[in-house]
Amino acid sequence: MSMKDILQHLIQRQPGYLELRWHKRTSNSFLATKGRVDVANHSITEGVGVRALINGAWGFAATSDISEAAIKRAIEQANANATLLAKARGAHAMELRKGKLSTKDFIGEGFAELQGMSIADKLGKVIDLEHQLAKSSSRMHTARARYTEYLEEKAIVTSDGASCSMKIAQPELSLSAIAEKDGQRATGSRGAGVSGGWTCLFKHPTLDHVVDEIARTTVDLLDAKYPEGGRKKVIMAPAVVGLLCHEAIGHTVEADFVKAGSIAAGKIGQMVASPLVTMADSGTENIAGYAVGNLPFDDEGIETENTVIIKDGKLASYLHNRETAAEFNVAPTGNARAWLFSDEPLIRMRNTYIVPGTSKLADMISSLDDGYLIEGAGSGQADSNGEFMFGCSHVWEIKNGKKTRLLREATLSGIAFDVLKTVDAVSSEFQWDLGTGHCGKGQPAKVDAGGPYVRCEINIGGRQS
Asked: Quick check: helix, strand or coil at residue 61?
């Protein structure tokens, strides 16, 4: 009997709303440097999370014992927790918007391939890439190659009709380098993640000629100067567009943050960007392939969809779970996600992006007299007002319609919606480019982001060379 069958049997004749979520994650992670594997981790996490809704109050319980007896005890505990909280708060009605409850049994592309590969083959490839990068230049001081994979198996059953299961693979690879010359150092990195197998990962466009690209850029940065600071006309590369979409806009439209008073609150139907900007968050991307955030359904059993957040410059939608969808009188968008079986679902993004436009990157550059092409998206921060500050590893100076010289790292800052209002060109070229690492919001989540090249105005923080 499958875990889905067991959960379906256990959920029968339960009072109120009940949600059972079985989750098994197998993960492997390797870090190679100096020709050897420095870190190798393997883990398997498995259990069942239970949520009960009684008289407007949620109760949650979880168990790592997946026997029927243990799951029954977790159900009893979740019901008891909900009943206790309802008494403490006072009973009140809470609606859950039903939406498209999934009955899919989904097996993602590449799951069997990744599961069937030997650890030795994966380790060998990671060590080889690190070796290639370390030997790529006499200026190379340090090279690192990190590989991580998640094999996710889930079954979700709800008392109102969801009954679904999935198996998906999420591998990722990142390479980083430090070059050195006369006591000066420069860093570079590239990486990619996918919802797919080993073959899919190494077909990701970001990994094309990845060793040569990192080595050349990192060594060239040793002699590079810093950009001039100020408000500048720039062209943001897909990774930088994705970073802006996710951090500075995406979080502000998550409905729990909207309820808390984010800058997006009350702005549905208002112009928040240039008419050239359409932005979305998708659980089933179909633009360019290779996105890591693909999911057939969320952790409430709602089928995922493509949610248009901004349509032709107007704010069109927030991101919802079933509870906030009912509060806002809209359909759920399939954005409820939990990292582990022992976590309760939160409203999270999946694949967040700006829709491609009609311009060509070459034309966007040739028509720019003075500005920068911003590449190498780094870390940063943003708040609920959409104000952000991001780092980027390098930029290209553009003068009189031509890329001229490579410049060292800079900071980008501004208010996201204000920046989007200055957009005057959006390219037809598109790429997913933020598929490594995790989004944090109380618990991690695998997400992706990207977009076309976007020309706009932004504040650049530079420094004297």
From this structure: strand
Report helix angle 3-11 to 68-89, nearest 10.
Answer: 50
End-to-end C-alpha distance for the chain, whole angstroms: 67
Are the C-beta atoms of residues 163 and 157 closer than 8 Å to each other? Answer: yes
Question: Among 141, 217, 122, which Cα is nearest to 182's?
Answer: 141
Please answer whether residues 249 and 387 qualify as being in contact, where contact means their C-beta atoms are separated by less than 8 angstroms: no
Strands 163-181 and 184-193: antiparallel
pTM of the prediction? Answer: 0.96
Evaluate whether 27 touches 172 at the Cβ level (below 8 Å). Answer: no
How does 53-66 read in b/e, with b if 16+ C-beta sit within 10 Å?
bbbebbbbbbbeeb
C-alpha to C-alpha distances, 347 to 280, 305, 321, 337, nearest whole angstrom: 15, 14, 6, 6
Q: pLDDT, tens digit, for every residue of 427-460?
A: 999 999 999 999 999 999 999 999 999 999 999 9
Return the C-alpha torsion angle 326, 330, 335, 341, nearest 10: 20
- What percentage of the chain exceeds 70 in pLDDT? 99
CB 418 within 8 A of CB 387: no
Surface-to-core class of residue 222, CB atoms within 10 Å of its CB (0-12 exposed, 13-18 middle, 19+ buried)? middle
Write down the domain spans for the chain: 3-221, 230-461
CATH number of 3-221: 1.10.290.10, 3.90.550.10, 3.90.850.10, 3.30.2290.10? Answer: 3.30.2290.10
Q: What is the pLDDT of residue 93?
A: 79
CA–CA separation, 36 and 41 (whole Å): 14
Burial class (CB in 10 A: 0-12, 13-18, 19+), 228: middle
Give the distance between the most distant pair of CA atoms in the chain: 74
